[in-house]
Each structure stands twice: as structure tokens, then as C-alpha cells.
Design goal:
Elements: H1 18-23, H2 48-63, H3 65-72, H4 75-80, H5 94-123, H6 128-160, H7 163-193, H8 198-224, H9 230-260
């Protein structure tokens, strides 16, 4: 008897009763039925790259905590004091310099995350593929802004002040940035894991930034103020190096968020 091809059906194979017809009725698979799932929201707290960057910085600071504690004793002096006499706080070891650079890197990361939560999530819906690149770009922008500030501080100190006063002002800038980065850790972590509080944390972060700049600028005022006409130079400094660069950074951060996403 010749073999019957499997692709050929005969009339005798058709269902001949109601039970057979019910048995051979085609139904959609069970997994296609039910409630449509809701996609998981994409936030910085769910991105492994951002969390790795944040945790990595915090872990490195924790590993250098012995030097960080020693550095804390010098930070208030560097931030506020304009005393020209040499003292124990004016000496910085190589370990403390490394820790300062690490804390400045933490400040840049915190500022990058805050700029993303301020501008990145409102520019367009972020995706997991673009979120890390956007935060990295904003962090690099914050680092470039610090380099600009330090260069401007060193240049103005070299032109308008003596070496001791210029060194005092540079240390004031670093101290303000280090303390700012440490205090920004609180609003950043709360914004990451409690998104409903993001607007309040952004306001707190802006207040901390204004406070740190006020301490730095007031120290510069005490160093450079000599008479009433010097106020003109101080006003020019505020417009040129404190207000205009900040507006430019905000515009560039918006462009980064739009182009990357």
C-alpha cells in the first residue's frame, strides 16, 4: 500500500460529530489572553550603568575615608579663612590631593545626575540605550565647567593678586566644590529612588549650589576688595564668570539632552 503524504487530508478525516468539531476547533493560545502588561518605567535608578557609576564613586570615597576625615579638618579653613599666615592647614599631602580629585569627580557625577533629572526627563522620554550616554555627557559638561572655573580662578589670582592670596582663593574654590558634592549626595539619592520628591530635591540642590557659590565669592571679595572703585571689578567678575557661564552651561545641558535622546 503506497504511503499517503502527510500534507493531504481526506474527507473521512473531517469531524463527524459535535464533540469532534469542538475538539478540532482552533483556539488562541492561553498566553495571548489576559490583561496587557505595563512596560517597566525607565529611570536612572533602574539603569545598571548609572548605578555602577554612582556606587563606584561612593565606594572609592569609602576606601579613602581615613584621608577624607583628615581632609575635613582643613575644608572649613580653606572655604572661609583669608588668613595669610602659614599654618598646619596649608600643607596638603599627596594622599589628600588624590582624595580632593576623587571628591571633585564625585561632585561632577552628582551635578550630571541632577542636570539629567532636571532637563533630561522632560526633554523627551529617555530610553535605556540613551540614558547612560546622556548622564555621561552631562557629567563631562560639569567637569569641563569646573576646569573652566579653576582656570579662571588661577588666571585672575595671578593677574590681580599676590601668590598667597591666589592660593587662598584656589583652595576656597576646591573646598566649596568638595563640600557641595558631599551635600548633593542626599538630594541625588532621594531623587533616584523616590521620583515623586524630585522637584523638592532639585530645589534643595539649587539652594546648596547657591550657598557654596556665596561662600566662594565672599572669600574672593574679602581677598580682592581694597577700595570703593574695586567694586566695579567685582561686578564685572560676577557677570563674566558667575552668571554668563552658568547660563551657557544650562543651554549646553539642554542641547545634550535633546541631541543624545
Amino acid at each position: 500500500m503506497p504511503a499517503t503524504p502527510l500534507s493531504i487530508c481526506h474527507e473521512t478525516d473531517a469531524p463527524s460529530s459535535a464533540s469532534d468539531r469542538e475538539l478540532y476547533t482552533t483556539h488562541p493560545p492561553a498566553w495571548m489572553q489576559g490583561v496587557q502588561g505595563t512596560p517597566r518605567p525607565v529611570t536612572p535608578a533602574t539603569d545598571s550603568g548609572i548605578l555602577m557609576l554612582l556606587v563606584g564613586v561612593l565606594v572609592l570615597i569609602g576606601l579613602n575615608m581615613r584621608h577624607v576625615r583628615r581632609l575635613f579638618r582643613a575644608l572649613p579653613h580653606d572655604l572661609l579663612s583669608v588668613r595669610r599666615r602659614t599654618n598646619a592647614f596649608d600643607e596638603h599631602t599627596a594622599n589628600e590631593t588624590r582624595v580632593i580629585l576623587l571628591l571633585l569627580a564625585q561632585t561632577c557625577v552628582m551635578e550630571g545626575l541632577l542636570m539629567f533629572m532636571w532637563l533630561g526627563q522632560s526633554a523627551s522620554a529617555p530610553t535605556a540605550a540613551t540614558m547612560m550616554s546622556t548622564v555621561a555627557g552631562l557629567t563631562a559638561l560639569a567637569a569641563a565647567y569646573y576646569v573652566f572655573q579653576f582656570t579662571a580662578c588661577a588666571t585672575i589670582g595671578y593677574v590681580f593678586a599676590d601668590p598667597v592670596s591666589a592660593a587662598l582663593w584656589r583652595r576656597g574654590l576646591n573646598a566649596s566644590q568638595v563640600l557641595l558634592g558631599l551635600t548633593l549626595a542626599v538630594p541625588v539619592l532621594i531623587s533616584l529612588f523616590y521620583p515623586a520628591l524630585t522637584s523638592k530635591m532639585l530645589f534643595l540642590a539649587a539652594s546648596l549650589y547657591i550657598l557654596s557659590r556665596f561662600c566662594y565669592v565672599s572669600k574672593g571679595f574679602r581677598i580682592f576688595y581694597h577700595n570703593f572703585p574695586s567694586l566695579l571689578y567685582f561686578i564685572l567678575y560676577l557677570c563674566t564668570l558667575e552668571i554668563i557661564p552658568l547660563i551657557a552651561i544650562s543651554l549646553m545641558a539642554s542641547e545634550i539632552c535633546v541631541k543624545v535622546q
